[in-house]
Amino acid sequence: MQISLNEIKKELHKHKSSEQAQVLQRFFKTGKGEYGENDKFLGVKVPFQRKVANKYTQVDLKDVEKLLQSEWHEERLTAIHILNNKYNNAELHEMKNIYDLYIKNIKYINNWDLVDSSAPYFVGHFLFNRDKDVLYRLAKSKNLWERRISIMATYYFIRQRQFDDTLKLAKILLGDDHDIIQKAVGWMLREVGNRHLPTEERFLKKYYKEMPRTMLRYAIEKFPEKKRKEYLYGTK
Fold first, then answer.
1. What's this model's pTM, rounded to 2 decimal places?
2. What is the pLDDT along the chain (236 residues), one digit of tens a residue?
3. Using alpha carbons only, how large is the chain's radius of gyration in Å?
C-alpha cells in the first residue's frame, strides 16, 4: 500500500494544540535572538509523534526528506523518528542512503531534540568504522547545531568504549561560548567517565581550568561531592 505524505501530516495536524504549541515555543527558545528563533510548533506531543512514525515507517524515503524539510518542528522530528526506524531495519546500502539524506538536509536539524534524537543513532553508528573527518568539519562550523551534531554523534562510539574521537572533539569545542554546546560536551565527557573514569579524569586534569563552568559541571555531575568541589574550585 502506497503511503501518502499527506496522511502523515493530517495525523499530526489532527492532534495539534495551540496551548501546547505556546509551551513548546517557550521551552525551545523561539524568541528573538534565542537559539530556536522563529521555529514553529503544532503542539503535538512526542509520544504521539513516535506512534505516527511507527505507523508510517514504510513511507518512501523521498517523502521522509520532504517531511524533514517542513516548517513545523514536530513534522521534522517525526521524520527523524521514521529515519531511525528505517535505519534500524536497513541493509548497508540503505543505511548509507539514510546517512547521506541526513547530511544533505543537515540545516533542518536545527534544535537540540532533533540533534539528540538522530546524531548518535545513525550518524555515529554509520561513521563508527569509517572516516570521521565530517565530524571534525562540523565541530568547526559556525552553525550551532552542526557543532552539537559532531559531539553527540560520538555517543555511539562511547557506548562501544571508543573514546578517542569524543576527547578530540571535546578539545576542539573546549572554548565554545554557547551553553548548548557546553552542556553536550560535558554530558559526553560524563558518559566517557561512566564507562572508564580514568580516561575522563585524564582529560579533566589537563583541561578543567580552561573549561567553561557549564561544561565542567555537566562533566563532573556524578562525582563524589569532595572531588566535584576540587574541580570546581581549582584545587585538584
1. 0.95
2. 457 899 999 999 999 999 999 999 999 999 999 999 999 999 999 999 999 999 999 999 999 999 999 999 999 999 999 999 999 999 999 999 999 999 999 999 999 999 999 999 989 999 999 999 999 999 999 999 999 999 999 999 999 999 999 999 999 999 999 999 999 999 999 999 999 999 999 999 999 999 999 999 999 999 999 999 999 987 66
3. 19
**3-class DSSP state for residue 40?**
strand
Strand partners, 72: 40
* Cα torsion 143, 178, 21, 84: sign: positive
Q: Positive or negative CA dihedral for 11, 79, 145, 88?
A: positive
H helices of the chain, where?
5-14, 18-27, 46-55, 61-68, 73-88, 92-104, 112-116, 125-127, 133-139, 144-152, 154-159, 164-172, 179-195, 197-207, 213-219, 225-232
